Amino acid sequence: MDYKPIDSKDLEFFRSWVEPNRFSTGESNLTLHSRDESLHGPHVPEAVLWPLEAGEVSEALKYCNARRIPVTGWGVGSSLEGNPLPVAGGLVMNFSRMNRILEVRSGDFQADLEPGVVYKDLNERLRHEGLFFPPDPGASATIGGMIANNASGTRTVHYGSTRDYVLQLEIVLADGQIICIGTRASKSSSGYDLVNLFVGSEGTLGLFVKATIKLVGYPGEYSAAVVSFESVKAAGQTVFEIMRAGMDPAALELLDKASVELLNREVNFGLPPNPALLMEFHGPDRKYLGEVIELVKEMAEENGGREFSSGLGREERDRIWHARHKIGEITNRVHPGTKRMILDVAVPAGAFPEMIALSEKTIKDIGLPGYIVSHAGDGNLHVVVLGKQGDPKEWAAIDELNDTIVRRALELGGTATGEHGVGLGKRGFMKLEHRDALEWMQKIKRLFDPHGILNPGKIF
Amino acid sequence: MDYKPIDSKDLEFFRSWVEPNRFSTGESNLTLHSRDESLHGPHVPEAVLWPLEAGEVSEALKYCNARRIPVTGWGVGSSLEGNPLPVAGGLVMNFSRMNRILEVRSGDFQADLEPGVVYKDLNERLRHEGLFFPPDPGASATIGGMIANNASGTRTVHYGSTRDYVLQLEIVLADGQIICIGTRASKSSSGYDLVNLFVGSEGTLGLFVKATIKLVGYPGEYSAAVVSFESVKAAGQTVFEIMRAGMDPAALELLDKASVELLNREVNFGLPPNPALLMEFHGPDRKYLGEVIELVKEMAEENGGREFSSGLGREERDRIWHARHKIGEITNRVHPGTKRMILDVAVPAGAFPEMIALSEKTIKDIGLPGYIVSHAGDGNLHVVVLGKQGDPKEWAAIDELNDTIVRRALELGGTATGEHGVGLGKRGFMKLEHRDALEWMQKIKRLFDPHGILNPGKIF
Q1: Which of A106, B172, B226, B362 is the one with CA 20 to 30 A from B1?
Q2: pLDDT of A295 higher than 80
Q3: d(Cα B149, Cα B170) in Å, to the nearest integer?
Q4: DSSP assignment, residue A57?
């Protein structure tokens, strides 16, 4: 695609209707939008616009579409595959000021949101109504980013991904047209499902300006447990058995020995220095949860699980999950001068033990600092590997590790990205994963965005 | 679109590679494929093909696409909106001989199926593994039909629609190309979600020849209950309160007085002659279910519920659901000389009591035999109205009732079809429901099927 650089006439256009504090070409603002939390970038945009309403988004897109100026949506830049980086320059549309919770209809278990709402703020607001929005990506992501990447996290094993919660979207298309897709009914068989087409499309088909999402009531009771294992393989086998037995955990996370030791050292995690499973169960009452935990304990111990600790109170539970969410950040701190690659694949349940074993072996083989942290219950595996900045040999080894694990996941019927999206990092695997279906994705892209102005260079 | 009638040269082509017992132009076979369970039709095809494998489906589509011969997929004809009727003639592709359960991977909670598998047969096969495929449309539908219409039913309130269970599809496109979409991982953020685009597309974008679906383990315990109410309004209010309180029923059905009386008379249903709720709860153990049932009983009684009967055994439960599924059939038998219109809308939970009240009023207003039978827990409402065959006045009144209820459902944020699909019957409401998004559905249709040979005349 041929894109046109933003010139003085374009600047004049934007400045004619946007207040100065919501449109910037200043270097510090451009730099702030040139990197996310991934390895990728910097990719510096030419201008940043903070829209306040759908009409402004439409106006900007109409203009940019006519002039072939790239437009890339931006939440808070917490993504992990370079998803919102403006690789072709152009305009970044920062939705942080469109962050209103427009309406909560608790009787319908629904809320209407602007894309800039931070999901933690949303859950804070919903707490008083006994409701919450379950997908929990860990980072302080916006609803917009979560929908764009179909984000998920520790609770997805029971509650599903962001995709499972989006009922209706108001979308601005490349040429500025605003359409509303989906329904507020809890189910529908009415025409093509456009909502799911847009969820996970990473801002390449349109930019949404309003979402109606489903909410969930708080469970009657929570219970958390941790257990240690001699080997990652034994922990992986236990995960498979817990899932196979229908124990329905609300979270089931696997940490390898290196991750546990890291957390012990850095945040006094206090577990034995061995691979561990962190679990949470939600249920109607304590008695039921007690029975579930007892069964899970037996399964763990049959696989050599030790120091099974359950019945953890709220404070202890929060501490564990907080620590779990901090791993990425901590690895960067304890390995100064490095960058981190976070691998993200997902496989069917039966393939999980093999994937865990392969991950452990490949980390050992390359001899670099590596950590396995996995949403194990849904077969989603993350491997964090640290390489020295600018060391081509280390990075070649890391690339090869990534390549080996992703290819094996695909062979086992899995996916190249369980939750981080394709962005820049996973483009190279799309043909292998989707084969001839990829060309149909590209045709859909061209249908909705014939000039390719929306988040160019991503997915494909 | 300009379609070409099937001529002798076309027949020669098909007969050159299909055995005579799998390709027919005989009148009785054509007639068998001219009607489903709806009011629509007859629409007689020109030929019927029973393919055995993907290659044959591809061969047939490639040929028909080149020659502009319409092709319409067919399961068992149990649909309720004319969805598989060959309104433009052409070829009907009957998938009943592609009915193999190809593989059950119980460790993954997955199965690979051909489209002609009847879901009841599937569940029979899965019972021995402690697994089942939850969407329960009542009729003996095929998996193909269920996926094409995104079918759902009594269990959807807890377990979701067919859509929620489709992981991967092998699809033959209009020009004969075979693509595989989706992944076997339980979650993915890899590229555009084509699976959900095809689920519910009613055979207008492609014909699928293989599906990988998710399965679910049997719950620990079941419990069913029934309760009667003085008014449909009180029953509807109770539904709202049960859902609002997060009681999570596995089924929550509302029958009006006429439906209960009909079942009492015809199948000795044995309930008081009043509106009723039929409920089922799934849970880990009897104690938990006992507590849930107690809470639900209180809610029902606060709304005037009477003769609450719970703890129904397996036999009694099966009897209730069997009777519930028979209502449509029975109405036809007890009103000879009539045809039945089955309305199908869904609304957000908060709008359900109003919709129930409106349905009751409109039935009373037109003075024809009418029955309200609703998957109340997910806001899905069916109204069955019987009109004399060939009586224009009665049918004008029925059309108006349908129009009134669908329009109000749309105004309340609902959908024109909760589970029966658009087919022929709901086309007229598509513009009202989807507004400008409808044109994008049509663009997608043209992208995948530029000559419009796939199930023409449906949805749009």
Answers
A1: B172
A2: yes
A3: 17
A4: H
More confident residue, B129 or B139: B129
Q: What letter represents residue A382's amino acid?
A: H
Our CA angle for B118, B119, B121, nearest 5°, is 70
Burial B154-182 (b: 16+ CB within 10 A, else e): bbbbbbbbbbbbbbbbbbbbbbbbbbbbb
Residue A374, min C-alpha distance to chain B (Å): 13
A393 Cβ contact partners less than 8 Å away, ≥ 6 residues apart: none
Residues of chain B in contact with residue A351, where contact means CB-CB under 8 angstroms, are 108
Q: How many angstroms separate the most distant Cα atoms in chain B?
A: 71
Alpha carbon distance A372, A452 (integer Å): 37
Q: Which residue of B has its CA nearest to A442?
A: B192
> CA A346, CA B186: separation in Å to the nearest integer?
7
What is the average pLDDT score of chain B?
95
Peptide bond into B42 cis (omega under 30): yes
Residue B357 has pLDDT above 90, yes or no: yes
Q: Which residue of B has its CA nearest to A219?
A: B246
> What distance in Å separates residue B112's CA from the closest CA in chain A?
13
Alpha helices in B304-457 (DSSP H): 314-334, 352-366, 392-411, 430-434, 437-448
For the residues B206-222, what does the mean pLDDT come to?
Answer: 92
| Distance of residue A451 Cα from the nearest chain B Cα, in angstroms | 17
CB A359 within 8 A of CB A383: yes
How far apart (Å, rounded) are the C-alpha atoms in residues A267 and A260?
10
Residues B265-311: tens digit of each pLDDT: 999 999 999 999 999 999 877 888 888 899 999 999 999 999 999 98
On whether the CB atoms of residues B257 and B273 are closer than 8 A, the answer is yes
How far the first Cα of chain A sits from its last, in Å, is 13
Outline where DSSP puts E strands in B244-375: 251-255, 276-283, 306-312, 338-346, 370-375
Residue B192 to residue A186, Cβ atoms within 8 A: no
Note the pLDDT tens digit of each residue in B35-69.
999 999 999 999 999 999 999 999 999 999 999 99
Q: Identify from A79, A175, A188 which residue to disrupt to test chain B contact, counting B C-beta atoms within 10 A and taking the largest count.
A: A188
What number is the average pLDDT over the span B232-259?
Answer: 92
- Shortest CA gap A387–chain B (Å): 26
Name chain A contacts of B164, Cβ cutoff 8 Å: 164
Contact assignment for A179 to B441 by CB distance below 8 Å = no
SS3 call for B247? coil
pLDDT per position as a tens digit, A276-293: 999 999 887 788 888 889
- On chain A, the residues whose CB falls within 8 A of the CB of B180 are 435-437
Beta carbons of A430 and B191 less than 8 Å apart:
yes
Mean pLDDT across the stretch B357-379? Answer: 96
Q: Which residue of A has its CA nearest to B444?
A: A444
Best of B129, B179, B188, B199 to substitute, by most chain A Cβ atoms within 10 angstroms, is: B188
pLDDT in tens, A84-135: 999 999 999 999 999 999 999 999 999 999 999 999 999 999 998 889 999 9
Chain B residues closer than 8 Å to A217 by CB:
246
The residue among B179, B190, B419 with the most chain A CBs within 10 A of its CB, best to mutate, is: B190
The Cβ-side half-sphere exposure at B281, using a 13 Å CA radius, reads 28
* B379 contacts A418? CB cut-off 8 A: no
Pairs of residues, one from chain A and one from chain B, whose beta carbons lie less than 8 Å apart: 260
Residues from chain A that touch B435, judged by Cβ atoms under 8 A, are: 179-180
**Residue A274 confidence (pLDDT) above 80:** yes
Residue A48, strand partner residues: A24, A92
Average pLDDT, integer, range A305-326: 89
Tell me, what's the ipTM?
0.96
